[in-house]
Write a structure and sequence with these properties.
It is a single chain. The chain starts with a helix and ends with a helix. The relative contact order is 0.11. With 32 residues, it is mainly α. The chain has one domain.
Length: 32
Amino acid sequence: MTRGYVNLIRISECSRKLLIYKIFFDSAEEKM
């Protein structure tokens, strides 16, 4: 149970970083 919970947190952190990168690159493309 605990191991799965830790994996969930790790996955959510990765997806959050991916979202931030996606937003950053989208805004950078708009500026170009």
